[in-house]
Write a structure and sequence with these properties.
The protein is of the alpha/beta class. It contains eight helices and nine strands. The radius of gyration is 21 Å and the shape is globular. The protein binds flavin mononucleotide.
Length: 286
């Protein structure tokens, strides 16, 4: 079995690297282990050319992205260790995430790989959407997320605590095929546990006046219930959408949606070019 650990942070021996190495070293010796530092890859931003749309097509940018994908495909399971930056996911992960249109239709190539995610953050209450965004990256890569560990650790080395390393080791063992899958995302978003989305685990919901909750990540819709006496006071009854966004069917559907937007552009390109012309001609000083 091969396990690939992906470290997003540029910090050498930082908390992400410590958590990734802690997890790798908790795996049996028979497991082939490798560690990939995203900081050592050249990954350009997506150019929105949509040349990668459609089954079997690769991103046309000549950098390390396709090699990154090949490394994921060569692994049987994946660890992602990536810190919260400005309430969201780390830049290195976002750069990769925006390139994943090319694999929307490739679930057969990627799914079946278990993944665990460790997310260090520096300030309690400042996790923002960083954990959810990191999980979203793993899911858009078709990985089967079997656990997540947010870790409060600001300075490099602060993740080295026995209780954290024990949790990281337990998480890593969920990658092994003989380990039964324990409940997904346990302990995650505990402050919103009663209303967290049961489809994807996210605690980030948008509310409307009709008493509905919308999961901003996976798109599930839930009915909120307010009880006057029992605890918890607020609960939510979630319905998993028919085409769950992160499922192979949901991603294929999104790929088809983008393909039809591309075809629409091709059909209307002359009209759109005319609309854009005055803006192209506008010049402003640097
Ligand atoms: C540019 C930058 C932005 C950060 N933004 C946040 C943040 O929004 N919320 C938070 O809790 N921690 C934030 N942090 C702290 C890191 O998440 C924390 O130090 C983490 O342990 C870094 O992991 P590393 O050692 O693997 O780099 C930020 C750190 C940096 C350098």
């Amino acid at each position: 079995m091969k396990v690939l650990a992906i470290v997003a942070s540029a910090r050498k021996t930082g908390n992400s690297e410590i958590l990734a190495k802690g997890m790798l070293s908790a795996l049996p010796e028979s497991v082939e282990k490798s560690l990939l530092r995203l900081d050592e890859l050249t990954i350009e931003p997506c150019r929105a050319c949509y040349a990668c749309l459609g089954a079997g097509k690769e991103c046309v940018i000549d950098d390390d992205f396709n090699r990154f994908l090949a490394q994921v495909r060569a692994a049987d399971a994946v660890i992602i260790a990536s810190p919260v930056y400005f309430l969201g996911m780390h830049t290195r992960l976002k750069l990769l995430c925006d390139r994943l249109i090319s694999v929307l239709n490739e679930s057969a190539e990627y799914s079946g790989r278990r993944c665990v995610v460790a997310v260090p953050y520096g300030v309690e209450g400042w996790q923002g959407y960083g954990v959810e965004a990191t999980l979203s990256f793993a899911r858009f890569l078709h990985l089967d997320v079997v656990g997540v560990l947010p870790v409060h650790a600001a300075n490099p080395g602060e993740a080295v605590r026995p209780e954290i390393l024990a949790k990281a080791a337990e998480l890593a063992r969920r990658l092994l095929p003989e380990t039964a899958e324990t409940p997904l995302l346990d302990g995650f978003a505990s402050e919103t546990a009663a209303i967290s989305c049961t489809a994807c685990g996210s605690g980030i919901v948008r509310l409307n006046e009709a008493g509905e909750a919308h999961c901003v990540l996976c798109g599930a819709i839930g009915q909120l219930h307010l009880a006057s006496s029992s605890e918890p006071k607020l609960t939510c009854q979630w319905q998993v959408p028919e085409h769950f966004r992160y499922s192979p069917a949901g991603m294929t559907e999104h790929g088809e949606r983008l393909e039809s937007i591309k075809q629409d552009f091709i059909a209307r390109r002359h009209e759109l070019l005319e609309l854009r012309k005055p803006y192209k001609a506008m010049e402003f000083e640097d």
